[in-house]
Amino acid sequence: MKFKIIKDEDLLRKKCTSAVDLEAAISLGEGMLAYLDEHASGVGLAANQVGVDHRVCVIKVGDPIILVNPRIVNQFKKISFQEGCLSFPGDTVVTERYANIQVIADNYSEPLYFSEENILETVCVQHEIDHLDGILMHDRKIDLDKGDKSSYDNGIF
Predict the structure, then answer these.
(1) Residue 153's pLDDT is what?
(2) 3-class state of residue 79 by DSSP
(3) Would you say 22 and 106 are in contact if contact means Cβ atoms under 8 Å apart?
(4) 25 with 54: CB under 8 angstroms?
(5) Is residue 156 part of a domain?
(6) How far, rounded to the nearest angstrom, does the alpha carbon of residue 78 sit from its chain's CA centroid?
(7) SS3 state at 146
(8) How far is CA 100 from CA 42, 117, 120, in A?
(9) What integer pLDDT is reported at residue 130 of this predicted model?
(10) How far is CA 108 from CA 22, 26, 66, 70, 101, in A?
(11) C-alpha of 133 from chain center
(12) Spatial separation of the C-alpha atoms in residues 134 and 16, rounded to whole Å
């Protein structure tokens, strides 16, 4: 598959539609993982970042993960984290995220748990699911000078 990273904020803000064909969605995810390996320096990618309107995202921090129609169903322990994004090269922002999350996805029969033991992966999952919902990292930006609520003393950044 040929992909190109979308940088148009209006396109990225569009909420993705649910993937209906599970097999096709997994195939899309495999292509996105291959793209990350060959062309990108990121650790995650959402389908709308490559111009595809389906709720599919991939994470490649440790073992590669494909998530089809993912939803965060539980989260706890707010943290701050410095993030970047393939759609906004060179930009970084400090965001408010959660250190522990539980996710359900159509291609997994059981919930998936992501924890602070692998904080990069945990934040990446949240970042990519946000993309599928049309939410950008800039929307999660916190201002440390204004004393936003997150735990700043968490050694994350």
Answers:
(1) 45
(2) strand
(3) yes
(4) yes
(5) no
(6) 17
(7) helix
(8) 21, 9, 11
(9) 98
(10) 11, 11, 10, 10, 15
(11) 10
(12) 7
Total domains present in the chain: 1
Six token digits for residue 116: 């602070």
H-type helices in 6-145, by residue range?
A: 9-12, 22-39, 119-132
Q: Is residue 4 part of a domain?
A: no
- 2 within some domain: no
Annotated catalytic residue, options 38, 96, 117, 128: 128
Q: Is the dihedral of CA 98, 94, 53, 12 positive or negative?
A: positive
Token pair listed for 104: 């359900």
Q: Among this protein's residues, is 128 annotated catalytic?
A: yes
CA-CA distance, 20 to 65, in Å (whole number)? 19
Residue 62, CB half-sphere, CA atoms under 13 Å: how many?
8
In a domain, 38, yes or no: yes
Residue with tokens 């996805």: 105
Q: Please indicate, yes or no, whether the overall pTM of this predicted structure exceeds 0.85.
A: yes
Q: Tell me how far apart the terminal alpha carbons of the chain are, to the nearest angstrom.
A: 35
Query: Which CATH number is 104's domain given?
Result: 3.90.45.10
Range(s) of the domain holding residue 123: 9-146
Q: Report residues of the chain scoring pLDDT below 70.
A: 40, 145-157
